[in-house]
Design a protein that fits this description.
Elements: H1 8-22, H2 26-42, H3 57-66, E1 79-83, H4 91-97, E2 102-107, H5 110-123, E3 128-132, E4 145-148, H6 154-161, E5 170-176, H7 179-183, E6 191-197, E7 205-211
Parallel strand pairs: 1-2, 1-4, 2-3, 4-5
Antiparallel strand pairs: 5-7, 6-7
Length: about 210
């Protein structure tokens, strides 16, 4: 890292949160720690995360990703699709924590998909498929969960991804401080959506809901 070091207190608090709220074991925490190290090393070669977020990486990126698991059934095995996976946030984080789920990570940028594939290999993650293609190239299919972090505004996102959703598909969309504003962009959809507060930032929100059949 270029002089920006992980805040040890942030790391400690984040790992405590993971144990308390998602029952993460020591091996899972260790694998997340390895993931963080690999990602920060790769961030020296390509722009994966903002420099300002690196010291608080555990809260800003790991917990921000992991909190999405609070909105799905704990024990049910689900098929996830993560659109615009980029650095593997939230896809790889959640795949490490919840190995009984299956994750399809869709990313069109070759440098990013190369990183994702290398991370999957280095971390020996068995429940992930990386798709190196634009979302438009992914074949029609239904997923149980659709996620997208900092990917596209709501109208565009729905237009691109509704073909992956059944009436029961759960959309979990971290939208930061624009969550309530973006909710107003979808009044015409026959759906049920609401904003959940983010555990990492009281001013940020996650749009959660499902389309009606």
């Amino acid at each position: 890292m270029t002089g920006l070091q992980i805040d040890s207190l942030d790391r400690e608090k984040a790992q405590h949160w993971l144990r308390e709220n998602l029952s993460c074991s020591d091996p899972v925490i260790a694998k997340l720690d390895q993931f963080v190290g690999l990602l920060l090393d790769e961030a020296e070669r390509q722009n994966l995360v903002a420099d300002a977020t690196k010291p608080v990486f555990w809260t800003r990126h790991v917990i921000d990703s992991a909190q999405l698991l609070l909105h799905v059934p704990r024990e049910t095995a689900l098929q996830w699709v993560d659109l615009g996976s980029g650095a593997g946030l939230p896809g790889l984080v959640n795949a490490i924590i919840a190995p009984h789920h299956r994750f399809t990570l869709v990313e069109r940028r070759p440098l990013r998909t190369d990183w994702l594939n290398r991370a999957v290999d280095r971390l020996d993650i068995k429940n992930v498929e990386v798709v190196s293609a634009p979302v438009s190239a992914l074949p029609d299919q239904s997923f149980d969960v659709i996620t997208a972090r900092a990917f596209a505004p709501m109208p565009k996102l729905f237009a691109m991804a509704k073909r992956f959703a059944s009436g029961k598909t759960l959309w979990i969309l971290p939208k930061g401080k624009s969550a309530k504003q973006e909710m107003s962009a979808i009044p015409g959809w026959q759906g049920r959506f609401h904003v959940e507060p983010s555990v990492t930032d009281g001013e940020s929100g996650i749009i959660v809901g499902s389309l009606q059949p």
